[in-house]
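Figure 2 data, in text form.
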Amino acid sequence: MTLEQFLRTNVLTLVTFIPLAASALILILPRGSKNLARWTALIASLIPLALSILMWVWFQADPCTDITVRACFEQKVLWFPLLNSSYHLGVDGISLTMVLLTTLLTPLAVIISWSIEERVHLYMSLFMLLEMGMLGVFVSLDLLLFFVFWEFGLVPMYFLINIWGSANRQYASFKFFIYTMAGSLGLLLSIQLIGWTMGTFDIPALTATPPFSNVAGGTLMGVAVNVIKNAAFWLFTIAFAIKVPVWPFHTWLPDAHTEAPTAGSMILAGVLLKLGAYGFLRLVLPFFPEQAHAFAPVLAVLAVLAIVLGAFASFAQTDFKRLVAYSSVNHMGFVVLAIAAAGWVGAGSSDVANRLNAIIAVNGAVLQMFNHGLSAAAMFALVGMMYDRLHTRDLTQMGGLWLVAPVYGGIMIFSSMASLGLPGLNGFVSEFMVVRGVWAVSPWFTLMTAVSMLGLLFTGAYILKGIRHVLHGPLNQDAVEMAHGRPLEISVREVIAMAPLLVLMLVIGVFPSWIVGVINDTVTRLLS
């Protein structure tokens, strides 16, 4: 077996578990060398990135457009014979995009974390464990395996917030844990019921033959099958809605973001929120097509409320980090709106034009997941950089910083405009695709799209508010004094961490086809 054959066969296992090996290695490194732990984490996080780029190149040559037909780089080994559960890994265009996002943001977050001085070994070890948990969700093709990774990622993030967070970190970490765990309990019950009823936890098999379709007689345990389907659908939906998060399940997010360390906020917004949206696309839409259609108008209303109220809440903030945190609720609302539209149209719809609208919307949703990961990570990094210098996130105590930190100001303007959706940058492409696709699905979705424009209006308002308070106006001498002589301009290390994000924001904005093409092949097959 050649090296290429070995890598093609085992690449997903390597990408997923190299961070686990790095986590164990970091814990046994000598405690006296903090830099050794940092460099080990950085080098270990670059290996999955390199493998992800290699997978992207191979995927271009031999695309696997639909997981139900053929998964790319597939591995399948029976690991729980009693329950007919397998160690089953594979990716398609949607999951490969999310793997690339995860492996890109992790090393950048490690670079931003270089300033961490307290318990560095444990911090870097937990970060590697977090990467493994996130990647495992995206590559799992077995429901039990999916749930194991889903829950695994909860623990490192809890400790990252609880130990290295800000003043109110214990409350925020506990709230994050409880909210996520509450949704996971219903998810676990539904997964158990599906596995027991269908005799398998294999996601491609369950996608081809939706859960409970083999129940004879119309009842299960004396309960109508439709009632059980509806209950399972809502348990899945609530678990993923909490993770996205969708209004009104969003209240854990601002606290978690505000109290988390900078790199934790980057990963929380950049990747962890995407797990919920990915769950909708991978599990809810194919497993529960009738329920997704019936309840699509309700999900659309929740999505629009997230867009509008998230923008309003963001505009009202005086804490720089909470402003960016609420913006995540606003931006992810467009993803959920597109998912609701796809549920309404349904896979294999006889209305060809409407199916095309849904395909455009879902393409935009997946691209928005990737784009928001870039812009949100950049914005949280910028907030953290200035907090390290000024020791405050209060916008009223900033001002005029462009005079003393022009590089920081330029990067902030660029990242803010990408988040705003300025044409020519990445945010515009994805949000335009969502709006274009959802608008024409039905009169109800046309109305929802029109209302969501109010959220876009206030997106511009809160972005400009943040820029004005931080960069413009006279220089706040109190802010300069709070820096205690430390230069307010960002360092070379921080510029290096930001550079890949800025480059991708521009490249996707002017030439999105390199990533949309990969996403579109999968979405078209799934909805056709």
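Caption note: Residues 359 and 374 are 23 Å apart (CA to CA).
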